[in-house]
Structures are given as structure tokens and as C-alpha cells.
Amino acid sequence: MVFPRDDPPASREDHRGSGLPVDYQGWLACATAVVGFILCLVGWRAGGGAVSLPWAPTLNLRLSAALDGLAVLYALLATGIGALVFAYGSRYLNMHLEHEGRPAVERWRFWPWMALFAVAMVGLATAQDLVLLFVFFDITAVCSYFLIGFDRAKLETRASALMALLVTAVSAVAMLVAAVLLYASYGTFSIPELLSRDDSRRRAIGCGGAGQECPGSFAFLATEGNGGPHPCLGLPALRSDGRGRRARSRTVASAAQS
To answer: I need a labelling partner for 125 at 20 to 30 A (CA). Which of 78, 117, 149, 244 fits?
Structure first.
């Protein structure tokens, strides 16, 4: 009688792990997010701060950012949750690629966009200029397109990525038009300056609503739209809610101070 020969436990473990190499890109992105979280926390403990550098002086554009209470809150959310998403995705993405029968080298099509997305979210949280806000907004839109369309061989994935890009592009154009109208009326793109004027506050609320509320449907696209690796899209889904809440919170806080 011949009995089937089982592989030794060690060989079975080697076989299970042979197709899942260490995702160095993912862990590097995770470490970067942790460093960003620590820097934001240290900056908040030190009393925050602000920076303003000339960008296009003829148009009164400046690279202005501030680390105030609300900015720290959303920057900590972006980097903290980002670090958790990156840590989970470092394992999940390998399993996803193995399940799809795709090479591990395709991780290079994923992690740079995720890292850039996290940086843009911190930029959105700290931006003090409407044009700078628009730039970071568009960066997240481009990143969203490539992240949702990661499984590009699937037709439904490409359709979801295109829909997300169109939805975000429409809201971005609306925000840019509102910013230009505010500049035409008040001669500045500075968010603090606009909110300090009683007659511009209502228009600032409209600008924030135009640019921040439309992408709320992105959460549906990211989770239900058959996009890329779903658990790895938790950070983009956080974006759709965080920007609108921050815009409304800033406006309410400014109104309360006056």
C-alpha cells in the first residue's frame, strides 16, 4: 500500500510565502506617513506655525500654509490613518496581485500615487491660498484616477476611475471659478483675508461648498465602484469628507470670532 507523501510543514510555509515578497515600497510609504504624523504632532505641541513664500507676485499668489488647530486635526487624520492604510496595504496588495496573476513589479504603479495623495491631503489641510488649495485638489483628483483604475484590465474599473475623475474635475472647475470671482471682487486669494471680511464670508462659504461638497460621491465610487484594491482606498475615501468639514469649520470659526 502506498500512502501519499505530505510535504514537510516548512516546505508548505515556504510555498505559501514564496509568492508574497516583502513590499518595500509600501513599508517605506508607511514609515513616511508615521514621520509626517510625528512632525505634525510636534508642530502642534510647539504652538503651530505658518509659512508664506512668494509664488506669482504679479497675481498676488503666495505659497501660504498654516498649522493651526483645524489643520493639525486633519493633517493628523491624513497621516495617522494613512500609516494604517499603508501598513495594511503592504500585505494586501501582494495578495491582490498574486490573486490576479500579476507581477509584483506593478506595485510601482500604486504606491507613488498613494504617497502623493497623502502629501496632497496634508497640503489641503494646511493651505491658506485658494489657488494653492485648487492645486492640491487637482493632485488628489489625478491620484484618485490612477488608484481607482489600478486594475486597468477590467472595464468596470476603468469606467469607475473615469467617473471619479469627471466628478472631481467638475467640482474643481467650480471651485476655481468661485476663487477667480472672489479675487475679482476683493483682490486676494488669501483664505484668512477673505474670511476676515464680513461681506465676503458668505461668498467664501459658496466657494468652499462648490469645491468641497461635490466629491462626496467619491466615497461611493471608491467602495462600490469596482475600483482598485478596495481596502487600500480608505485614504482617498477619507478625503471626500474631510475637506468639506474643514472648509465649513473654518468659516464657522471665523464667524464666531467676529
So the answer is: 149
Domain boundaries, the chain: 22-49+60-257
The residue among 77, 78, 75, 76 whose CA lies nearest residue 65 is 75
Closest C-alpha among 234, 231, 239, 230 to residue 160: 230
Output the CA torsion sign for 111, 112, 113, 118. Answer: positive
Nearest-angstrom CA–CA distance, 145 and 147: 6
Q: Count other Cβ atoms within 10 Å, centred on residue 37.
A: 20
Which amino acid does the sequence have at 143? C
| Beta bridge partner(s), residue 49 | 67
List b or e across 165-198, with b for residues whose CB sees 16 or more CB atoms inside 10 angstroms.
bebbbebbebbbebbeebbeebebbbbeebbebe
pLDDT in tens, 73-112: 889 998 999 899 999 888 888 888 888 888 888 888 899 9
Q: What is the rounded distance in angstroms from the CA atom of residue 86 to the CA atom of residue 68?
A: 26
Q: What is the pTM of this model?
A: 0.74
Whether the Cβ atoms of residue 125 and residue 75 lie closer than 8 Å to each other: yes
